[in-house]
Amino acid sequence: MKISLLKETVASARMIDESKINTNEVQILTRVKIKNMKTNQLMTYMIVSESEANFKEGKLSVTTPIAKGLLGKKVGEKATVSVPSGVLELEVVEISL
């Protein structure tokens, strides 16, 4: 079963040209620096697919509440995100690759 799942993952994989990734807004494969408006804490995350997610490495799955709230935002825009511990008010400080 595991081998079958891995074969399916490899078969559906796509190569992404980093030069075509737009850093004007938050999207998958961009690194985003955000500021928690309540605590003024700065955090940096990379938005990745579910299979690549690793919170310890700062890689957030595109399906997490924080990533969903940030997708499409531009530098200076704010996002209100509902997480299990409450509501976060986040500001996009920087977007890069």
Structure description:
The protein is α+β, with helices and mostly antiparallel strands. It has one domain (19-96): Chitinase A, domain 3. 16% of the residues lie in helices and 34% in strands. It has 2 helices and 5 strands, in the order αβββαββ. It has a 5-stranded mixed beta sheet. The longest helix is centred in the first third of the chain and has 10 residues, at 2-11.
Question: Which terms summarize this structure?
Answer:
Chitinase A, domain 3, five-stranded mixed β-sheet, alpha+beta, 97 residues
Quick recap of the structure?
The protein is of the alpha+beta class and 97 residues long.
What is the helical fraction, as a range of percent?
10-25%
Strand order of the largest sheet: 3-2-1-5-4
Task: Measure the end-to-end span.
Answer: 35 Å
What is the count of distinct domains? 1
Q: Count the strands?
A: 5
Individual helix count: 2
| Gyration radius, in Å | 15 Å
Shape type: globular
Strand percentage lies at 25-35%
Summed over residues and divided by their number, the pLDDT gives a mean of 92
